[in-house]
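#dry-run=false #mode=assembly
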Amino acid sequence: MTHNEFYRIAVADPDCQAPDFLAAVACDPQLAAQVSEAKQFNDQLGMIFEPPQPSDSLTNKLLNISLTERSQPQEPVTSPVNKPAKFAVNLAIAASFAVAAVSFGLLQNHNFTNPDLSSHAMAHSAHGASFAGVIDERPSISSVNYRLASLGAKFSDNLTDLTWFNGCSFDGVNSLHLVFAGKMGPINVFIVPKNGAFDFEAQYSNDTYQGIAQEYPAAYVMIVGLKDEPLQPFQQKIDHAIHWNI
Amino acid sequence: MNNEQALKQKYQSLVDAYHGDLFRYAYWLTGDRHTAEDILQETFLRAWRAIDQLNETQAAKSWLITILRRENARRFERKQLQLVDVDTELLVDNASNDNESSQQQRQLRRAIMMLAGEYREPLMLQIIAGFSGEEIADLLNLNKNTVMTRLFRAKKQLKLIMNSDPQETQNDAQ
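#status=ok
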């Protein structure tokens, strides 16, 4: 390694413990001085990054999470040694910046609407048929309400037959996907925040599914069941169970 | 102690040990306290739900940072890009403490927020979380040399700002 390369390491990572770097520092006073200066600068930056401190209420909220029922995550949480997954995270971040930037530009000139929210709900139900709600995970209502809180909504505690839930990307909008046990099969419920100006049909169907859409103050609730599932009573059940604080 | 109690204890020790650093990391990543709080809650909720996947306690910090970065990526999926200024609480003028040092600190804070994300993030991982160049490379899925170059450039840029005329720098930043 050249002197310049050691110098760059000294500036970039003065705590580097690589044996060749440490050996170079030991026999080069100028490099040692650079390491010392870079460590001081890191300390100075440490003071800059020190605030803010998390509030006590946030700390309590984080601790109280362990009082909620723990269920298996529906998607694996990345292991620190899982490189492909890490690549996906980085790609997601890069892509999200790009998409956000492009979208931002496009939205300056266009009033974007999605005319096909109902089709998305049915496609999403078909996509999740092999895993969503196949096993009754009995998620707690409190864990669902934790996610719903950001929408100013909550379900009453007596809501029954919930077998599965997870966050999902609903045509780019982060939404909640719940599955209930119906009379004829699983009933999918999507709670889609009104982040986008979606268009929807109140009732919809295809060869396999039928659905009902309901618009609430902060979200659309899309209910999808098999063709012969009685959805009206289920829709009323959801309507009675969901409460909006806004 | 049954398994569920052991997991709960494990989770709570993670909160105790890392929530401060993670909060600061989220804050400097997003530039907004409320967004940082939201991301942190989502991060720990996911960590709790997957706590039994964490076998090596010494990998916990990297594991939590990875979850947090994913949550931040989700935030961009959910929302349009928002330009967020640095929290005013950090930039507020304090007349009684308005000496050269505090002025320099304000300039540094502004300068850090003005760094490109690709420079700011490795710097945060080094300074806030204490990761080595190799660990940062692993977390960001980058070549170690790339990380070292970014750290080098980030620090050089910040040094330049520190050594320049304070008034001029303030004007440049605005």
